[in-house]
UniProtKB/TrEMBL annotation:
Pfam family, one: ABC_tran
Coiled coil: none
Protein name: ABC transporter ATP-binding protein
PROSITE patterns registered for this protein in UniProt: ABC_TRANSPORTER_1 (PS00211), ABC_TRANSPORTER_2 (PS50893)
UniProt entry keywords in alphabetical sequence: ATP-binding, Nucleotide-binding, Transport
């Protein structure tokens, strides 16, 4: 189990994270979400031991994670970290990068492992390509494969699919997270993309204003968001009588007490997102068709 206990941290005089506590069971996938600047990357770096905590402690099983004040070399063998700036070796090939830290005394094993990981990140056809000739998204995939090469117990991923195009993203997510589950690798993923989280995380924590403001399974946080910030991570929503409703919970009906005026319609693939004015507030409704601007609509709430 990974245990973070009352951790506080500041780069300069202002605290970035205050009194952060949570546990992750071995083999679980935990997502850290929050707006840009909320401290997601900092929290990953603290778990990695890149900085010294101002207060609190972090343990992996019986080992305390210590920062540079206590550790000459940052990091631990059982943990790998893929940062937002994946630093690869540009002048050697994809397969050489992935196998960089694997023992050359077991060439067969090394080759087999590299092939397996090329498959996980769907880069089989690029094995001989020099990293400098890859796109940002391809480099990101090499960085993930390299982090997995020596079978870490914990993998820390900072916005791991941010550079990968939409054509590839979903299948790559499934492939990487499936591999982690199969190998029982504990995983902490920082993200602001719900698609990195919904189908994969066992638990998620939401960072805001230095603290954890919500922690639960993705299912529970989606169903009962409690705070607008949590709801906004998932979908468009409206606040009516102090309650949060997702756009698909508002249905257009013939007549009701809830009258709104259509302001804007946005095509959203399977449906349209209707922006409407209700009293003095803007609200969002999911609807199968677009609607005439300035028309009156009546709404029913589906809880
Ligand atoms: P996130 O990953 O959620 O976008 P970060 O952890 O990168 O957030 O940053 C959290 C806060 O810490 C921000 O206010 C950021 O400006 C600040 N910060 C990040 N890195 C440093 C640094 N090396 N020195 C000083 N301040 C930093
Ligand atoms: Mg970040």
């Amino acid at each position: 189990m990974l245990v973070i206990k009352n951790a506080s941290f500041s780069y300069t005089s202002n605290l970035v994270l205050k009194d952060i506590s949570f546990n992750i069971s071995t083999g679980a996938n935990l997502a850290i979400i929050g707006e840009s600047g909320s401290g997601k990357s900092t929290l990953l770096k603290l778990i990695y031991g890149e900085y010294d905590l101002d207060q609190g402690e972090i343990f992996w099983k019986d080992t305390q994670i210590l920062g540079p004040k206590h550790n000459l070399v940052v990091g631990y063998d059982f943990m790998k970290y893929v940062s937002q700036e994946f630093d690869l070796m540009p002048y050697i090939s994809v397969e050489e990068n992935i196998g960089k830290h694997l023992s050359r005394f077991y060439p067969e094993e090394k080759a087999q492992r590299t092939t397996e990981l090329l498959k996980v990140v769907e880069l089989e056809t690029f094995s001989k390509t020099k990293v400098k000739n890859l796109s940002g998204g391809q480099k990101q995939r090499v960085a993930i494969a390299r982090a997995l090469a020596k079978q870490p117990e914990i993998l820390l991923l900072d916005e791991p699919f941010s550079h990968i195009d939409n054509f590839k993203k979903q299948s790559l997510r499934r492939s990487v997270f499936k591999h982690l589950k199969e190998q029982n690798i504990t995983c902490v993923v920082a993200s602001h993309d719900k698609n990195d989280v919904l189908g994969f995380a066992d638990q998620m924590i939401v960072l805001h204003d230095k603290r954890i403001i919500a922690k639960d399974t993705p299912q529970n946080l989606y169903k009962h968001p409690k705070l607008p910030l949590v709801a906004s991570f998932f979908e468009e929503f409206s606040i009516i009588d102090d309650q949060i409703y997702y756009a698909h919970q508002l249905k257009i009906v013939e007549r009701s007490d809830l009258k709104a005026i259509v302001k804007q319609c946005y095509f959203n693939g399977n449906s349209w997102l209707i922006e409407a004015k209700y009293n003095s507030d803007f609200i969002f409704i999911e609807h199968k068709d677009s609607l005439e601007i300035a028309s009156e609509i009546y709404l029913k709430i589906e809880r």
